[in-house]
Amino acid sequence: MASKKATVKATVKVPAATKMGCPTKYKPEYCDMLIEHMRGGYSATSFAGVVGVAVSTIWQWVSDNEDFSAAKKRGEALLELFYIKMGMDLARGMYTNGNATAWIYLTKNLIKWTDRTDLKITGDFFTNSEAKKDHDLLQAVDRKDLIRLVKKQAG
Predict the structure, then answer these.
(1) How far is the C-alpha of 112 from the C-alpha of 83, rounded, in Å?
(2) Is the pTM of this model over 0.90?
(3) Based on the number of CB atoms within 10 Å of its own CB, is 44 exposed (0-12), middle (13-18) or buried (19 or more)?
(4) Which of these, 120, 137, 107, lies nearest to 43 by C-alpha position?
């Protein structure tokens, strides 16, 4: 007669997954440091150079830490205030060697200001059909032709 072999079922507990990689270099005091850094006119990304991490690490901290994210938002407001004050001082002639072109470049790149080149109006705001016809006519006319026509009639 054949003998039966006993089988044993074992349950092995696997520890919970742990994060791989280097431990974070984030420190809570970076929140205040970031705010002060941006108050001085510097970007959040340039803060990476101050604390010695990659720019992608800064964005990861923003994503992972509510306090750091809030500090970045506060810093963005202070950064914009810095450049508004600088622009106003530049306009008032308070800088003897001020450079308006550099200021424009900085505001466009750091705080995403832009020149308004096109104003798009949407929605039905016409109160009568004549206004709608005038609008449609103006949209169909080439702007250069319109400028020439106005200059011709004025001159």
Answers:
(1) 12
(2) no
(3) buried
(4) 107
* One pLDDT digit (tens) per residue for the chain, 155 residues: 555 666 656 565 655 555 566 788 999 999 999 999 999 999 999 999 999 999 999 999 999 999 999 999 999 999 999 999 999 999 888 988 888 899 999 899 888 888 877 767 676 665 667 767 776 777 777 777 777 777 777 76
> What is the biggest distance separating any 2 CA atoms in the chain, rounded to whole angstroms?
121
Structure tokens at 50: 């101050």
- Residue 139 has phi, psi (to 5 degrees) of -70, -30
Smallest CA-to-CA distance from 43 within 28, 24, 58, 26 is with 58
Do the Cβ atoms of 66 and 25 come closer than 8 Å?
A: no
Residue 115 token pair: 């020149």
Q: Which amino acid is at 62?
A: V
